[in-house]
């Protein structure tokens, strides 16, 4: 018969129990003994996957006393059940389950083409409906001055415009400068086309290919990647791989957020 052996460790030397916290999605913790801090994106098979603010993901074992929550040591456990609804929208904003779309504001966001509009809708659609912001596309910016004049922006009807390839000295930059004002904000990204705002990693490619000048860029991309030269189908494939803001380049993310803030600061619906 096994003898009972009492624990003679002094009370002051014994490790104090720490709280057990379910590793629910989006819970932000720090890994004990490291400088890695991130949000929970998965928890399975005795491990937890964390994603930091730069989009880097790492897997850690669910060890006792292995994490810090608000500076306090905790033990992460597997969630008891899946959440009833996503905690965040595709843009990373806090989700509002059951929220109704707001009546559309007088202000608008214009983007250059249909692909831009579809990408903005895919990532920011929930936010835009709650804020009552409508997104329309222009089919190019050559006539932007006339569009702005017809829209007649004002303090209660601000206009935000997202432009492709907005770099110093370009045609787009000159057009943007000619229409910008207190109630008109024109911002842009440096890419030839909004396709490039999707991270290559989301598509399983190393990088977007270089396309020689004078060649249709989208067709050149399809050719270089071995895709059928059908740009509409290619875009649908690209769009299908975008599930959240994490799949987009920060250059685009910042510009769209800037436009939403600008338009929603300009009065009520």
TrEMBL record:
InterPro entries: DUF3097_C, DUF3097_N
Domain DUF3097: 20-79, 108-264
Pfam families associated with the record: DUF3097_C, DUF3097_N
Name of the featured protein: DUF3097 domain-containing protein
């Amino acid at each position: 018969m096994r003898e009972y052996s009492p624990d003679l460790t002094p009370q002051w030397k014994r490790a104090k129990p720490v709280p057990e916290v379910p590793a629910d999605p989006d819970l932000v913790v720090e890994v004990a003994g490291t400088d890695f801090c991130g949000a929970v994106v998965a928890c399975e098979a005795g491990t937890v996957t964390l994603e930091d603010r730069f989009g880097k993901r790492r897997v850690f074992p669910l060890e006792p006393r292995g994490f810090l929550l608000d500076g306090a040591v905790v033990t992460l456990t597997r969630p008891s059940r899946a959440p009833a609804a996503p905690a965040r929208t595709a843009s990373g904003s806090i989700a509002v389950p059951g929220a109704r779309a707001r009546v559309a504001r007088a202000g608008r966001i214009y983007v250059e083409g249909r692909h831009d509009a579809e990408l903005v809708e895919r990532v920011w659609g929930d936010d835009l409906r709650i804020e009552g912001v409508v997104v329309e596309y222009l089919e190019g910016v050559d006539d932007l001055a006339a569009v702005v004049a017809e829209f007649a922006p004002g303090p209660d009807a601000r206009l935000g415009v997202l432009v492709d390839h907005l770099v110093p000295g370009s045609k787009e930059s000159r057009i943007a400068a000619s229409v910008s004002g207190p109630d008109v904000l024109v911002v842009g990204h440096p890419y030839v086309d909004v396709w490039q705002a999707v991270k290559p990693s989301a598509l399983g490619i190393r990088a977007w290919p270089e396309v020689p000048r004078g060649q249709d860029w989208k067709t050149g991309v399809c050719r270089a990647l071995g895709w059928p030269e059908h740009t509409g189908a290619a875009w649908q494939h690209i769009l299908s791989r975008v599930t959240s803001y994490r799949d987009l380049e920060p250059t685009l993310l910042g510009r769209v957020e800037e436009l939403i803030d600008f338009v929603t600061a300009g009065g009520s619906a």
